[in-house]
């Protein structure tokens, strides 16, 4: 054959047993929810039920080719349709598209939808996006990808949006405000009604970043509190696996006004000869208003199957208990840490599903940072909380236990924090060298990025 | 089940520690009209055996037809060792490897993945993956624009799957990029004369050329000629490839005199089940000098203070969590679990194994084609194709496909209407309606191919 490869590609040439041993041993070097508590704020590292995996790996789901006609994949389409409906109900929204393959893609979809709608209304002057200074990095990055201008809004010492700053920056050029609620501080945005009124008052929209939906699940719906479009993170709130960094899924939901713009395809039903069928709206009449496709096929179907199964397991009886127990766990842990002497800029409030402590005081007194605390927790068999996010709280740890951790586990975690604190106060030098008990010590990140040492492949030029 | 493990006693003790009487007290700061008065109207909670029965019943509605479909998703054989290993809890439920010391399993796996994709594409460096092939292509386009910001035009010098084209248009919509398709010849390869003319007319405005290999129809373009033409005119070359065929055919890094500049594609053929089209992952590789323009995560090798080798996320200054609105992309996740599975697959198969898979698939496709030619079927793509091709049937393709469908065979795909204008230059609409694209992988047995031909004969004659 012409164009034949001249030299064999340098891939491993090993036996099956060698490969299996290599990767099995590698897996044993990981912390995971299956083995350790992972109190990562903003990530909702809840248990990934094994039954979701087992059922999603049914060969009859795996063997579906995306180009098959709808008739031959009614099973998959039924689950996708029902998932759309379940998410709409949970979020209080009118319409849903399951195609975005991650939260950031869901954000991109939502923002492109608003942009296209504004273009149709010939409101091109509306090109400013308001983003709180505490927002997740994907928010401003997404806004810029859509060609918007990003304007930052300050937050008060109470942890809420500064309404005065917001009022000053809201005008006829405002297109969207991107918010998460609770905020990335883990605090409920108590002024959301005022914010919604202000934003809607200038013909702008409220975008809800669904990363913190676990705090509201079953008790509050974004659609009821003024949000117009949102994404959910199925790999957070709906227990699909994090897989070492993906695949996630970021279903996008919206009010009726924005529904025609949803990314394609969505799933709907059709009644033909008295039989209900599930179909994909690829050639829908409103397809010229849709923002189009964000992916080759229709999203991360395997992830969507798992989310569906999880929601069916919860049902109406348990959905609100998720929020209740996530908030309970976070408050319990928070109180124990505050009583043990840790500081927080928000110790006067009830955190929602996640809480913040700051190590600024410890840094001044002992030279110990949030980074050090994080590395020490690894030695106690816990994954560290989120560090240095949100970016405007110095030396912070954002801690989200999730509802799947028991009281006993939280007691163990707070004991670990307290033990670390005691070691800091007695000037234990091993604090600064942690992790000390793992098979590897602190890794030299500066060296990894240095042009002279940059090494990203075992093939060297 | 349902995964919050608190006993009533636990709850009471925790509330006492916090200093409140009920869980509702923790929601007291929230405007009470935001809280739902009654349970969300979801179906009742299901036990594991109930949801299991439900899912298996729904799965039965997917037909188990024999698959001869292609178009970017392929029914290749996946060794059991792949998902038994990738599905281990330590890989499945691990998080993004931000805490490197407890994520060496994930990080080293990604480093090996990067190395293998570099080897397969014959490029210097790779990232840790993107969501899918189509969005990877969009990112590649944005990368080429960042490299030469004054050039804003991109030419599609090959035929992409229309879903890929739609995706790249959606994702680059607000970024001042113009994307133009070049016409094709009768065998669906790119019209080099028209390409020459277009380049002439747009001197210094063209950022990059996209070459799909193979193209939508299965044909193999003249990659060396196209690459040299691009480079002669200071245009970057973006290769969009089926990674499987690179074990057997010329890899992008060896195209023309200097090789392609950016390679990307969808990793599904490498050990990922079809599962209705997702999740899979996109890969992107490039020259070392463009590494800082790569989107997404990159893993680098380094060491700890005792000189133990370790792996970390590196060059993070490109990413959203650091650069926010100035990030190279808004992307947050990679496709973690899918990447782990592919890395294991590549290690199990090796270059020889994948080459053998491609050759067997190619041979099967030719066998089916030869058989079909007996029934007044002719080939469109000529003799240069890997394991995917397009034919002209004596009856409308849709009719043939439907008839074969009712006989339990997914025979192929009709040509997407978006490509009809390209074909109209050489074919009548009637001929286009008779065209069918199909792929035969190594998984199709002799018996399955014979059955296809047996049924085809009945339908066509």
How would you explain this protein's 3D organization?
The complex is a heterodimer of chains A (461) and B (461). Chain A is an alpha/beta fold. In chain A, the strands form three sheets. In chain A, strands 1-7-6-5-4-2-3 form a seven-stranded mixed beta sheet, sandwiched between helices. Chain A has helices at 16-27, 50-56, 59-62, 74-91, 103-120, 138-145, 163-169, 192-201, 301-339, 360-366, 370-379, 407-425, 445-449, and strands at residues 95-97, 128-132, 149-153, 174-179, 205-210, 229-232, 252-254, 267-272, 275-280, 355-358, 386-387, 396-399. Chain A is 36% helix and 12% strand. In chain A, helix 6 (138-145) links the parallel strand 2 and strand 3. Chain A is globular. In chain B, strand 9 (299-303) and strand 10 form a beta hairpin. Chain B starts with 7 loop residues before the first helix and ends with a helix. The chains are: A alpha/beta (461), B alpha/beta (461). Chains A and B meet through helix 1, helix 2, helix 3, helix 4 and helix 5 of A and helix 1, helix 2, helix 3, helix 4 and helix 5 of B.
